[in-house]
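Lecture 7 notes: from sequence to structure.
We start with the chain below.
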Amino acid sequence: MILKKIIIKEQKELYRHKNYLLTLDLEFNNTKKEYSNSSNLSFEIEFELIEFLKNNSFSFTIEEEKITDFKKQITAKYKILQIDKNNLFIVEKLSNSKLYLLNQNEKAINILDLKKTLFKSYKKVKNSSFEGTLSLNVLEILASNQDDFKELFTTLAILENHDSQTLLYIEKLKKFKYACIAKIKQKQQDMFLCNCVPSFFPETKFYIKGNRVFSDYTEFFLNYEQELKVWKYLYSNKELVGVYKEPSLYELFIGRKIYILDEFKNRVKVVIKNAQFLENRGINITLSNGVSSQKISQIFTKEELLKRVIEARD
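Predicted structure tokens for the same chain:
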């Protein structure tokens, strides 16, 4: 893609027109001390800008810049024209043509391809993770309907600074989530989902309540970001859905902290650097204060050491 770039170096009296230039989709580069456009200007804006510069005797140059990065090509060619929170257009910058109309109401998301006169309406997604923002609701809908409006999905994802592959992955996670919930409910047992999820305490057990994930450690439901971690973990470890995993010594103790008494009898926290199970005796640990490490003589049962770890948690 070739971008026609108008470059205006900083010059006398130009600063007085800064706000006007910015309204014409120009950007100011503080390093180069110049105004220029990083995307296509419509014919009308280009004509207005050049007339303004000539009439005010401001010097400028026109250069052609080759853009090879796909995302930069999209942002150079298209823009979002937001009418209100429920209506927006996708606009081609060069011709100022409206390509798509996106609309939402309480019940549906509506998409109209203005070039192909193609219209589709989608029932709104319940419990949307995107908090009702029109652009992101559309992306969520299109991630669920991958054969519809493929070009719009790619373009809108880039304009909203979202990775389309991530959106598709999250959509797969959602489908996986509801399949897992159905499987757990079918067992009609205690609704246990999993444990030993990275980023959570390993002894934490997660349960399904309704369509949400409940932690027995906090006795609260997980928020969206926390749930996402659980479902990502299970998506990569499908065999552990509804299966209790015995936490390893590494998961329970390595990198965890416990309290000890230092040489001045002060209670201080140190890190468990290593934990080793001694057959028929218990667990022997190596502690680190950040400077040196030392294996201690005390032997712990798993329950005793876990109690010490829990006690030292912030």
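Points to note: The mean pLDDT is 91. The chain has four domains: 2-66, 74-162, 173-229, 249-311.
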